[in-house]
Amino acid sequence: RHKQIMDEPTENSEYYAILNCGRDASTEEIVRAYRKLAQVFHPDKHLDEEHRKQASESFSKVQEAYEVLSSPERRQVYDVYGKQGLAAGLEVGDHLRSRDELKMEWEKFKAAAEKEKEENSVVQKGSYQCRVDASRLVHGDWGPGGRPVGGPMGLFKSVTAQNALDAMVGDKNVVSMSGQAMVRPVYRRTPQGLEELTLGGGNVVFGFRRIISQDDSVDVSCQLGLATLLSFTTSRRLDPLSGRDAWLNASWGPGVGLGLQAGCSPSLF
């Protein structure tokens, strides 16, 4: 029974370890090592289904290592920058021969990756809605039911604005700020008839999220405006496939007091 190739070799030495070669091995030595291991791990050499499956996995690793180390250009990139350098495409191009050229290309790749990361670290989204009443165009200054048309807000029945901003701080922290505001007309009856007034309101929410692990996070938020609310929430991902989360929330607000909630989304029932 063969022994499967190790699963977690060290970066920049993985391919050499798979072929059981030193980092100073010649191309001929790498070819001989590959042929020897191919004889051992080729799936056709094993009749037992379980052994065939393990051999197939090991044979794929042997082939991958050989394809890199048998190419002088790709091997040079791998020796300097490991698999990440290969993934960056530094092996492409006949002019990349010296380490100085490789280093220059690698720095360009890292700078572009860092710029993309910064651009993606801040996410802004918003929505803006206006409702218009065109009754004035049909009924003149007074609409149906004796309501005045064309008051302080003119044709607008309501204006709503929502905006949110999320920013990554480091790898595990997210700072957020969101707000919403709405303006709409209201009517009150006076001796002179119905009077149109403008009513507005809104709130601002500041939040902080700490990503503890792939499945666990903690959120703290503070809402200011028409209603003030402090909130603390801890959540855990129960099932990555279905997206089911369990959460526990504690909140406090003036005049409301302390509240405690627990739940699961989507619902278990």
Describe the protein in words:
This protein is α+β, with helices and mostly antiparallel strands. 32% of the residues lie in helices and 38% in strands. An 8-stranded antiparallel β-sheet has the order 1-2-3-4-5-6-7-8. Strand 6 and strand 7 form a beta hairpin.
What order do the helices and strands come in, and which of them pair?
Layout: H1 14-19, H2 27-41, H3 49-69, H4 72-87, H5 99-121, E1 122-132, H6 135-139, E2 156-169, E3 173-190, E4 193-211, E5 216-225, E6 229-239, E7 244-253, E8 257-265
Summarize this structure as a short list of keywords or feature phrases.
alpha+beta; 269 residues; eight-stranded antiparallel sheet
- How many DSSP-defined strands? 8
Low-confidence stretches: 1-10, 92-96
State the major sheet: 8 strands, antiparallel
What is the distance, rounded to the nearest whole angstrom, between the alpha carbons of the first and last residues?
49 Å
* Percent in helix: 25-40%
- Mean of the pLDDT scores? 78
Q: How do the SSEs run, as a string of H and E? A: HHHHHEHEEEEEEE
The helix tally amounts to 6
- CA-atom Rg in angstroms: 33 Å
Silhouette: elongated
How much of the residues is beta strand, in percent? 35-45%
**What structural class is derived from the secondary structure elements?**
alpha+beta
Going across the major beta sheet, what is the strand order? 1-2-3-4-5-6-7-8
